[in-house]
Amino acid sequence: MSVLTQKLSDDARRIQALLAGVSLEQARWKPQPAMWSMREVIGHLADEEQYNFRVRLDYTLHRPGECWPPIDPEGWVTGRRYNEGDLTITLERFLQLVPNRSNGCVACNNLTGTQSTLHHLVSYVRAICWQLE
Question: Angle at CA 4, nearest 5°, toward 117 and 41?
Fold first, then answer.
């Protein structure tokens, strides 16, 4: 298992442990109105796994000349009403998606291809690693 893959797995377990025993009110609480609650943060993390990382990795590997589709994290969190949802279900969704990112990272390690595709991918993977620090 690579260091990055291990870190992704460890972080997912830490998030799960931090949320154990959190009440409904605690999960909905926002430090400030413009900030996200725990429920919204977990919904955002699941969205990043499903609609950002996976999609952009696919475009990078299989459609290198195409522009990535736009994302709207803030709009998704409010539009999908994550603060009203079930934290347990949203957390499970996130935890089920994490191994897919790990698989994507493994695929990146086995890449061969054009210099521009690799440059694009390296830039994106660096951004992902920066998020993990």
Answer: 95
3-state secondary structure of 9: helix
Distance of alpha carbon 69 from its chain centroid, rounded? Answer: 16
Measured between alpha carbons, how far is 117 from 80 in angstroms, rounded to an integer?
33
Question: pLDDT tens-digit profile of 93-107?
Answer: 999 988 766 555 555
Q: Which of 17, 74, 22 is nearest to 47 (CA)?
A: 74
- Write out pLDDT tens, residues 21-73: 899 899 999 999 999 999 999 999 999 888 988 888 888 888 888 888 899 99
Say if residue 39 is exposed, middle or buried (CB neighbours under 10 Å; 0-12, 13-18, 19+).
Answer: buried
Residue 95 CA to its chain's centroid (Å)? 10
